[in-house]
Automatic annotation (TrEMBL):
Residues 27-43 have a biased composition (Basic and acidic residues). PANTHER family: PHOSPHOENOLPYRUVATE CARBOXYKINASE (ATP), PHOSPHOENOLPYRUVATE CARBOXYKINASE ATP. It comes from Sesamum angolense. One of its GO terms (molecular function) is ATP binding. Its main location: cytoplasm. This is phosphoenolpyruvate carboxykinase (ATP). Keywords: ATP-binding, Cytoplasm, Decarboxylase, Gluconeogenesis, Lyase, Nucleotide-binding. It comes from the Eukaryota. The lineage of its organism: Eukaryota, Viridiplantae, Streptophyta, Embryophyta, Tracheophyta.
Amino acid sequence: MATENGEFSFNSSVRGRNGLPKIQTHKKAEDVETDKEICHDDSAQPVKAQTLDELHSLQKKKSAPTTPLTATQGPFAEEDRQKQQLQSISASLASLTRETGPKVVKGDPARTAETPRVSAVSHQQHHHFSPTLNISDSALKFTHILYNLSPAELYEQAIKYEKGSFITSSGALATLSGAKTGRSPRDKRVVKDETTADDLWWGKGSPNIEMDEHTFLVNRERAVDYLCSLEKVFVNDQFLNWDPEHRIKVRIVSARAYHSLFMHNMCIRPTPEELENFGTPDFTIYNAGQFPCNRYTHYMTSSTSIDLNLARREMVILGTQYAGEMKKGLFGVMHYLMPKRQILSLHSGCNMGKDGDVALFFGLSGTGKTTLSTDHNRYLIGDDEHCWSDNGVSNIEGGCYAKCVDLSREKEPDIWNAIKFGTVLENVVFDEHTREVDYSDKSVTENTRAAYPIEFIPNAKIPCVGPHPKNVILLACDAFGVLPPVSKLSLPQTMYHFISGYTALVAGTEDGIKEPTATFSACFGAAFIMLHPTKYAAMLAEKMQKHGATGWLVNTGWSGGSYGSGSRIKLAYTRKIIDAIHSGALLEANYTKTEIFGLEIPTEIEGVPSEILDPANTWSDKNAYKDTLLKLGGLFKKNFEVFLNYKIGADNNLTEEILAAGPNF
Ligand SMILES: Nc1ncnc2c1ncn2[C@@H]1O[C@H](COP(=O)(O)OP(=O)(O)OP(=O)(O)O)[C@@H](O)[C@H]1O
Ligand SMILES: O=C([O-])CC(=O)C(=O)O
Ligand SMILES: [Ca+2]
Ligand SMILES: [Mn+2]
């Protein structure tokens, strides 16, 4: 209150001499009139509730029905639509032997006070048995469906019901993936039937371990029975591929809020309208990861099995809760479906400059796809999975999955800032009181991860599509320290290195690997491809040629010696190298050719010490360098032997050139 001389003070008119407000004991005349009997101590309106339950019911309002109903739809259209949706979910969860789906109802079983908006439905196939013959206890119970919940709802579910779920100081949801903290490639099986026997890549080097249809059904039944036995399951209906012409509808049924939030972040999130018209999914994942497979079942070699049935368009996960299995499982499906449509699927990151120049970043796990495609000066199209079609490039996913080990705000600011409310943080260690995450702590695993929606990166390009790539960057984390930090590749060299897919696998992402070892993984992602590597290589060659893209090999690994004696190339230098590729400056540089691998290396790059550009300079022991170079060259040659009898594309010359583009000695 302002006093006469303009100074501000507290209400002095009711203050006593000691400065404390006086208690008014006498009502003024006007108060007595409006206020009959009760003595009030507040001026605000009282809440319009008689009981606490009533009060709580005021807190939440019903979500608005999504799209307005059109005139042709009757008053019950919304209810019908919801019923159809539930019927479709019950059909997804149907036991194949009992031929019925569970009774499903929407909503959280813990909220008993809430009556479901749609009555329970179940799915029943037409069959000749009398229904009573099929009745079992499981057919009498309800399964609650938590359908496309929001991140806030999933946080609450996780924190209430899943041990190991916590909110970190930046608002992310920290969680544990259980005993498995990486993928289990040796437990990934694919049904071999008449079609896939011919279509897919089988045998030595292939990731596709065969299983028969019957065994798949045994595991499917096990997963479905497990999921239906639960009080509630999470269902996500989402999309893959930002190219609208080639979008795939996926349904993920899972038992954990962690899995549902992970997929919410990683797949493309439908708008409310798209969700209403979702219909039947093109592909379904049954994630029963908490429940093991039965080792007495044919083909099972551990308690984990990730089973893909392309004919049924289904995947079953038993015995691993590592969420990356779902992400990469769907990637495998895309590696089958897209090439059938002449679209190349790629294990690559992708970004675009201000002028529309697109770069692809290929590389195995931990080589820098996410780190280097997340670039403050460029638009991020995606960090891990893309398609290259006649329309250009499109991201398959709606989110990013970044490694967090040793993450720092200074080196990777955009990723650091993306770890906020909504982000799933897997297997990190944090302070029990402040909830500050210690990214250097590898107590749970090296393979700590953050999964966030792509729009958490400020310069994400939405929709995540772009024109044809100008640069194709092959990343290798060379633990031997003999590959140059950057080399310019001819088309046959690009193909040779693409098919070889060399890196030193960084610890942790695949279960059981504890320190870097040289690895060859065709197409920089043999664990995910479905067809023979030469099929993808031929498509890549054709597209690069047609659109005039330049290939580069970038070593994000060791310099000055092998793992143990040298050190990893500074991220700041790699970023400068990548900048020079994007700007076109590196195309103009002077080049010299290396021995053995015959790689073209630049003599100068702005911001990078010239002496590191040729690894021969950085090793103090020149003999050790030469020996190591020969050793790696030998490993490349040996690895390539299995491809010697294959033809790559229609052009015989290209095949010859590719074979000649490897190390020469
Ligand atoms: N010179 C460098 N270039 C790139 N990354 C580097 C470099 N030095 C260290 N790193 C670290 O290497 C890791 C690269 O991991 P990144 O998440 O980019 O892998 P990725 O290729 O996306 O693998 P995945 O397919 O498993 O997601 C990051 O932790 C990054 O900080
Ligand atoms: O799939 C995972 O667990 C992480 C990943 O991106 C890869 O390994 O390529
Ligand atoms: Ca990544
Ligand atoms: Mn990946």
